[in-house]
Amino acid sequence: MYSLFWPVVACALLTIGALTVLRPLAHRLGLLDIPKGRKQHQGKIPLIGGLSVFVGVSAGLLIADSTAFEHWAFISCALVIVVLGALDDALDLSVAIRLVIQSLVAIAMMWLLDLHLAHLGNLFALGPIELGWLGPPLTIIAVIAAINAFNMTDGIDGLAGSLSLLTMLALTFFMLMWGQQDTALLPILMMAALLPYLAANLQCFGLRKVFLGDAGSMLIGLTVIWLLLQGSQSAESSFRPVTALWIIAIPLLDMTVIMIRRIRKGQSPFQADREHLHHISLRLGLAPRHALLFIIGLAGVGVSIGALAEYLLLPELLVLLLFLAVGAGYYYLLSHVWRIVSTLRRRRN
Ligand SMILES: CC(=O)N[C@H]1[C@@H](OP(=O)(O)OP(=O)(O)OC/C=C(\C)CC/C=C(\C)CC/C=C(\C)CC/C=C(\C)CC/C=C(\C)CC/C=C(/C)CC/C=C(/C)CC/C=C(\C)CC/C=C(\C)CC/C=C(\C)CCC=C(C)C)O[C@H](CO)[C@@H](O)[C@@H]1O
Ligand SMILES: O=c1ccn([C@@H]2O[C@H](COP(=O)(O)O)[C@@H](O)[C@H]2O)c(=O)[nH]1
Ligand SMILES: [Mg+2]
């Protein structure tokens, strides 16, 4: 196992350093988030959180082992995503360009490390369901889905940072418990970088606010799917593929359900709006910090169900059906939320 002390310390310190150095450069780089339309924050906020996390994590990986091909492969793919996200933050790129580059990164990931969705696990207790030639296209879809699911959570202070912190904590736990100690380095470094970012994002200790930007939320999504594939698809896997769904339950459900709802309303599924779980929580009257705690609480329940199902080795089909049932319930609740709220209010009066 890698020695963790210096990589983690360097990662945290370099993230703090990058947050400090990049803040005054944000204006010149065009990386300021200016409130308008659906962007309802106060003031011009530097979009430098993601770049800083990237600097810290890359340094941590190289300090741990600069000869590891796997580390260079991750840094290269992450660099492409971070540059794409930063260009999008500064220039608003088209959806097509973003999807093409994200697909190319998925292909690079498969080509460099053979990291892909090869099987869905032992869903029918007849042995692993091998995907064969379907694996690579499904991997591209999973990479695009994870990147965009985490991007979509980045709509209120602290949410994308805390959800990814929880996901990284869960992945570290699974990997340390079930035999992938070396693989756990990446989620541990992500946590070391995300903590200083979150402190700034939530303005703790008098720090000034920064956002992740699409560079950061897309970097998180890429790292998550990278680790889900390493954790569930390699020879010494730490968890079963179906558990991956629970580890990212809230971002995955939010994205899937919002896309279904947009299509049913006759809109493009890729049309940005303020109908995500965090927006609805605010409109229900929760203060931003309460909405944050509420959603993190839900995500914590999801991760705990995944961990318990893994620990008890519940049948994979049952765990998948439970996830789909929760997804259907969530879809129903969100589609009827205002009717439910007004009925409850009428009954109370
Ligand atoms: C557009 C938008 O919303 N914008 C936001 C955002 O604004 P921002 O400005 O930042 O961004 P932009 O607007 O500029 O937009 C950026 C994005 C784009 C334009 C591109 C959009 C792209 C997408 C939305 C992605 C498209 C998604 C797909 C193509 C595919 C969908 C795929 C899945 C859902 C599955 C993915 C799975 C994984 C990721 C995990 C896989 C990994 C494993 C190891 C597990 C595999 C093992 C298994 C056993 C799984 C097997 C599974 C099955 C076969 C069973 C089926 C299960 C599933 C498919 C899982 C999903 C099921 C459910 C969830 C259940 C649901 C059930 C019911 C409903 C009944 O942010 C702003 C701020 O917030 C915001 O305002 C703005 O709107
Ligand atoms: O920490 C955060 C992150 C985001 N927001 C708000 O969400 C939008 C999201 O921007 P996108 O360009 O759609 O990614 C951002 O402009 C902020 O208004 C936030 O308040 N806090
Ligand atoms: Mg975004």
From TrEMBL:
Keyword Transferase applies: yes
Keyword annotations: Cell inner membrane, Cell membrane, Glycosyltransferase, Lipopolysaccharide biosynthesis, Magnesium, Manganese, Membrane, Transferase, Transmembrane, Transmembrane helix
Subcellular localization(s) per the UniProt record: Cell inner membrane; Cell membrane
Catalytic activity as recorded in UniProt: di-trans,octa-cis-undecaprenyl phosphate + UDP-N-acetyl-alpha-D-glucosamine = N-acetyl-alpha-D-glucosaminyl-di-trans,octa-cis-undecaprenyl diphosphate + UMP
Enzyme Commission number: 2.7.8.33
Lipid bilayer topology: Multi-pass membrane protein
Ranges annotated as spanning the membrane: 6-25, 45-63, 69-88, 95-113, 133-151, 158-178, 184-203, 210-229, 241-260, 291-313, 319-341
Top-level taxon of the source organism: Bacteria
Obligatory cofactor(s): Mg(2+); Mn(2+)
InterPro entries: ECA_WecA-rel (IPR012750), Glycosyl_transferase_4 (IPR000715), PNAcMuramoyl-5peptid_Trfase_CS (IPR018480)
Pathway stated in the Swiss-Prot or TrEMBL entry: Bacterial outer membrane biogenesis; LPS O-antigen biosynthesis
CDD domains from the UniProt entry: GT_WecA_like
Family to which the UniProt record says this protein belongs: Belongs to the glycosyltransferase 4 family. WecA subfamily.
NCBIfam families with a match to the protein in the record: ECA_wecA (TIGR02380)
General function of this protein: Catalyzes the transfer of the GlcNAc-1-phosphate moiety from UDP-GlcNAc onto the carrier lipid undecaprenyl phosphate (C55-P), yielding GlcNAc-pyrophosphoryl-undecaprenyl (GlcNAc-PP-C55).
Name of the featured protein: Undecaprenyl-phosphate alpha-N-acetylglucosaminyl 1-phosphate transferase
Organism whose genome encodes this protein: Alkalimonas mucilaginosa
Name of the gene this protein is made from: wecA
